[in-house]
Amino acid sequence: MTISIDLNAEGARDALRRATPTEKPSLIGLTRAELGEALVGAGIVPERQAKMRAQQLWHWMYVRGVSDFAHMFNISKDLRAELDKHFTVARPEIVEEQISSDGTRKWLFRFPPRGAGRPVEIETVYIPEEGRGTLCISSQVGCTLTCSFCHTGTQKLVRNLTTEEILAQLLTARDRLGDFPDRDTPDGAIVPAEGRKVSNIVMMGMGEPLYNFEAVKKALLIASDGDGLSLSKRRITLSTSGVVPEIARTGEEIGVMLAISLHATNDDLRDLLVPINKKFPLKDLIAACKAYPGLSNAKRITFEYVMLKDVNDSLDDAKALVKLLKGIPAKINLIPFNPWPGTNYQCSDWETIEKFADYINNAGYASPIRTPRGRDILAACGQLKSESERMRKVDRLALEAMMIAGHGEA
Ligand code: SAH
Ligand code: SF4
User: Fold this and answer.
1) Which one of 152, 306, 340 would you pick to mutate in the ligand 1 pocket, going by the greatest count of ligand atoms within 8 A of its CB?
2) What is residue 207's predicted lDDT score, i.e. its pLDDT?
3) Global pTM value
4) Which one of 80, 180, 186, 377 is at 20 to 30 Å from 52 when CA atoms are compared?
């Protein structure tokens, strides 16, 4: 069963929309120094107070999760009014929130055009599991790349997301899940029994994060700031299709965990599945992985491998995979292919996936098979695609039929 909240129903839209989007510049996504400069630049804070005020705002925005200056109680009423006149800390518009029968949640956000011609929409997915809650964040609207098995890849790049928009996905998810002090978790929500509701972040939503490097870097540094959102860098994973020139910088300048969308063990096949391979072939990709800063047995690279029936799922492929990764501290993540309307690929049979996984396990790799989550709301890997090309009902029904015929739904 899927619960979909229809935001066209009267009242519902207001309930989810935390604040009306405004044209005022947002303070979210600025570094502390930029925050101080913005306050001084607007003439509402004297230079000598800039640092202190920036710190105060930082705490309200990122520790307390406040989205309205009016709630910043240790700031004078006059200054709050001035802040509100010049800036915003409001959340973006949520167009739709869907809740899967397995507790997975998917939000469709709408952001201003910022040069894209019209407002843009992106998706963010929350996956609750025993002991952790993972938020899958988007970095771009669409993608410039065209991996042949990926739904997002069929949507052209509309634009990069800003630092604010990347962080807004985390802040809003935490609002909606009651993951800030003073906020309640919605009745019946499936969340980890203890600890933070959003304990992990994966940059595995729409887009190629390393083609939006600066904004992603800034957002992840704010998300991992110890005096703010405070997510450990060990719990943040950035997934790339293989933008080799940016891999070293990811380790040096961001310092998060790395995942590589590998999917094939030879250039001929990878050229077809992940076409960026033509530009940065396997030899270069593997060399960049071996040189990843901070790599150790305690800090391994995750290699993602989508299981495509009769394409890359033979035992020979498993052998080639083990050989290719020799010498790299690695985890292998087998992803059952998630179908979408119009695709020619099929997911490997369950038996094939298990055989493949066994071989890899025996070779000494932890190789969890990623259980598809939230398929009933098209929230699984590679199924994300935004409103601009939202699925027609007939396609949705076709997809459901395909999933039932294919490998069943748990
Ligand atoms: N652009 C980045 C991150 C987003 S995709 C990247 O490609 O790494 C997140 C993961 O989902 C990638 O490993 C991607 O290859 C995989 N994926 C894409 N489409 C999929 C599908 N239909 N089924 C299963 N996995 C898919
Ligand atoms: Fe883009 Fe990643 Fe999809 Fe490839 S798999 S098209 S890089 S989002």
Assistant:
1) 306
2) 95
3) 0.88
4) 180
